[in-house]
Amino acid sequence: MPSKVSINGHGASVTLEVFGYENPFAKNNSDANWLKCRVATNVGQFTGNYDASFTTSDFARFRDGLKTLLTSLSGSASFDTDEETLKCAIEMRKAGTAVIKGVARIRGQTMAALSFSFDSDQSFLVETLHEVEGVVAEYPMKK
């Protein structure tokens, strides 16, 4: 069963499933740290999913940003990727509420993108942090 990270809000979600390292026997650390993933979006009446590759450092940076965000209950955290197949920014607002904005992008012969924005709050984001910590622990950065 894949590991997952769900970025949930009120009536919407973006879920990242992680299936494992793309190249578990790679000798070069830049090749060894890519993960096979699937992105599932459920934003209002728009739903879809697509395969994508993210790095172990993408998840580690997101974890660090979420920790800071949830400790201070201010600022922002984001999941950004080198290939720009997913950008998801979380901005904390007053009283523990947050807005999540982003773009899910499919690259290849046919290109498509979904821009999204939805409200969330710290109760959803605490669970997201827990799931991201699980992915980082299961798939540590290889050196």
**Series of secondary-structure elements, N-terminal to C-terminal:** EEHEEHEEEEH
CATH class: Mainly Beta
The number of helical segments is 3
CATH architecture: Roll
| Helix share, percent | 25-40%
Q: Helix/strand-derived class?
A: alpha+beta
Report strand order across the widest sheet.
1-2-3-4
Q: Could you give a short account of the major beta sheet?
A: 4 strands, antiparallel
Mass-distribution shape = globular
What is the number of strand segments? 8
How would you state the average pLDDT, rounded? 94
Structural Rg: 15 Å
Fold-level CATH name: Transcriptional Co-activator pc4, Chain A
Runs in which pLDDT lies below 50 for 5 or more consecutive residues are: none
Fraction of residues in β-strands: over 45%
- How many domains comprise the coordinates? 1
CA(first)-CA(last) distance: 26 Å
